[in-house]
Design brief:
mainly beta, Immunoglobulin-like, 2 domains, five-stranded antiparallel β-sheet, extended
């Protein structure tokens, strides 16, 4: 297991403790670690009153975690949440969460809108058949 550490706050550095926050680390897929078969059930942690948290996660080169931050709305008490866009990749030694986040590579958004398949058809290009409406991506 690798320990990931951090502090949860709002953008004014205020603690969310009165809003009963919870941080969920959602695995990108099932996996195997040693002799264990790992399910995709989220691993959750409740930060302390200062916002500080520690969570033990399985390190993996081929898996990452999406992070969901949940809290209760201060007025209505209804649940609210955010999803952190960069992916969390956990190395064997763990570490501060800010050092472990990586943005996913962005696929090409180039689109060809024409009646016949593009020639040449580069990888990543999306072709929309302007007659049938069929959409294909070159992989």
């Amino acid at each position: 297991m690798a320990t990931v550490t951090g502090t949860l706050s709002d953008f004014g550095y205020a603690s969310l403790a009165p809003l009963r926050p919870e941080i969920a680390f959602i695995p990108s897929g099932a996996g195997v670690f040693g002799g264990r078969l790992m399910a995709t059930r989220p691993v959750t942690v409740t930060p302390g009153t200062s916002g500080y948290f520690e969570v033990d996660l399985v390190p993996a080169d081929d898996r990452w975690f999406q992070i969901r931050i949940a809290w209760l709305d201060p007025v209505s008490g209804a649940p609210d949440n955010d999803y952190v866009e960069p992916r969390l990749y956990v190395p064997e030694l763990g570490g501060p969460i800010g050092h472990l986040l990586k943005a996913p590579s962005t696929p090409s958004t180039d689109v060809a809108w024409q009646p016949t398949a593009p020639k040449p058809w580069p990888v990543g290009l999306v072709w929309v058949n302007s007659i049938t409406g069929r959409v294909q991506r070159q992989v």
